[in-house]
Amino acid sequence: MFVQPIDYFLAAWFVLAGLSTAYVAWDQFRNNPEPAVMKWGFILVTLYLGPVGLLLYVLADKEPRPGTHEQFIKPLWKQGIGSTIHCVAGDATGIIIAAAVTAMLGLPMWLDIVIEYIAGFALGLLIFQALFMKNMMGGTYWENVRKSFMPEFVSMNAMMAGMAPVMAMLMMGRDMRAMWPGELLFWGVMALGVGVGFATAYPFNVWLVAKGLKHGLMTDRGAQREPKPAAHGQHAAHAAGGEASRSQASHQGHGGISGGHRHAGSEGQGDAGMQHGGSLPPHRAPTSTQIAAVASFTTILLVGGFAYPFMKVNMSLSAHDVGDVIMAPGMIMDFDTPADSMRDMAAIDPRLASFEAEPDAMGGQVLEPRIEDGVKVFDLEASVIRWSILPGETVEAYAYNGQVPGPTLRVTEGDRVRINVTNRLPESTTVHWHGLILPNEMDGPAEITQDPIQPGGSYSYEYTVGQHGTYFYHTHDHVDRQQSLGLYGALIIDPSDPQDEIPADLEYTVQLQEWLKREWLTYPSMPMEGGLPNFFTINGKAFPATDTVRIKLGQTLKVRFVGSHTTAIHPMHIHGGPFEVAAVDGETLAQPARYMADTVNVGPGQRFDVIWKAQRPGKWLLHCHIPHHTTNNNVETQGGGGLMLVIEVES
Ligand SMILES: [Cu+2]
Fold first, then answer.
1. Nearest 10 degrees: CA dihedral of 584, 586, 587, 592?
2. Most exposed among 140, 196, 318, 629, judged by the fewest C-beta atoms under 10 Å?
3. More confident residue, 441 or 86
């Protein structure tokens, strides 16, 4: 499932990369007269660079007309491409394999890039240079290792200097799915890293080729021109090893790459395809000082490329720590931001939603208990759902019983209650009964009074209700994240003595919540950088999807405001006349303590019971008085949005 726009782009890119690679492979083995090692180099690099690899192949290497390859590849810029292709094919393959393995092993990023460098260098030097090129260079395998070391060192340093910061910064960027090889994004970052590494290494490869220190592109017409003795052919096939020589052999129907023949006739004629330092005129031959200078410079580049990500991202984290999280745009993440901080603020993975609520489903529905031995028993199940807050606007949410807010529990003072909580979330949780006097082990704070309920686990809360009034329940494990995502619900306790009831003709409970939804993903809203909400709901819906409260002229309405939200203080206001504040935080105010107001500041955790009288017919608004909180993603529609509902008074 695709969860971000980039996923569609990447899918298209990799289709193009597949097609490009198929074309290059087909053309290389069917038409192009060059050694198998270069054919495979172009195939691998096109796999990594997609259409860019194809472009390089067509413009620099593909024989344009029969018999012209030798002339076509002569320009130095093409020779530089060939040399870089050869370097990147070996080094990048080693780097990518190392990156995938270290991610799966859960090694930290700093170790990841060190291992990538070693693996890239080893594969490039020991296999792609010394082994595959041996039959062209002549000499023994170890002589080739020794001779290739310095050019490979220069080229690898330059490539890694470009590739390492790109990989580290993007893998540890906002979308850290890039750390995990099971995600398309990981391969996208690898491809981009290879591209930047290629560009960084290219100028150095041009110099190495110009100075005869590395091979560029070569022409190999194999058996057509220079039939080799069988013994030589077998030796070459053995040296080149593996698929490369076998494919070459089967295509040409001959004994593999023919070794060493290009030395003859090409040297001394300025054929860039086969220059060697020794054959260059003295004024062009590289000096050891020049080589040392270039090697030192690329080493400085490499150190810089390695150091930069250490200043920007937390290189001590691994793919196991944060390799699946996507961070909110604008969250500040620096080199010591811990994994827990990232996980706390990460988006809900939409792929975890186990249930999609109907668009018109309402939250906070009263849950009827079953009676077991005189105990009122409720079952709550926490899970990831998809929830509609507005027509056309859904969020992922952590929810009790598939609704936001969770079901309203309505009990009577003196009741014995048991609430069985089952955790179907991807993380541990608990439930706290806000404001209640109860046994300490029933209070809910994770790690303080109980072990967190692990995913798949359950816990039963049982107590006798000794108070009455407006209360609520909410998660008390990683509250910062979980309550913001929807784990709360109203707990209304009727008094055992009806005389204690605050009378009203009608009542309505208002549960507030802030949401942060960006780029298709839902993040927990928080009062910090990147965490500020852009949607606001009353009982899980934003205006105009909120309820309309209908009441008759002259009747009284009891509004129970519940501060179930987590980010702001909402000055809740009702049009059409003042209300009487009759209870605060579940406690009924004595008559002299009650007061008239038209706005109450509802902070997180607070409750206010207010009595409003319908004095005039018409549509009267109930809304937050921070105007931004009556918008939906900054947009006012049909007169408002967010924390707003209409009280319709009929005459
Ligand atoms: Cu507000």
1. 40
2. 140
3. 441
Query: Which residue from 350, 620, 364 is spatially nearest to 472, judged by alpha carbons?
Result: 364
How many whole angstroms from 642 Cα to the centroid of ligand 1?
A: 9
C-alpha 83 to ligand 1 mean position (Å): 63
DSSP assignment of 535-561, as one string?
EEEETTB-BTSS-EEEEETT-EEEEEE
- 619-635: average pLDDT: 97
418 pLDDT above the threshold of 60: yes
Distance 626 CA to ligand 1 centre (A): 5
Give 582 Cα–ligand 1 centroid separation in angstroms.
21
Q: How far is the CA of 572 from the centre of ligand 1 (A)?
A: 7
The CATH code that applies to domain 355-650 is 2.60.40.420
Cα 86 to ligand 1 centre (Å): 61
Flag whether pLDDT at 96 surpasses 50: yes
Q: What number is the average pLDDT over the span 379-395? A: 97
User: Can you give the pTM of this predicted structure?
Assistant: 0.85
CA of 565 to the centre of ligand 1 (A): 10
Look-up of token digits 């009831």: 501
Cα 292 to middle of ligand 1, angstroms: 66
Task: For 224-271, write each residue's pLDDT tens digit.
Answer: 544 444 444 344 334 333 333 333 333 333 333 333 333 333 333 333
Q: How far is the CA of 539 from the centre of ligand 1 (A)?
A: 14
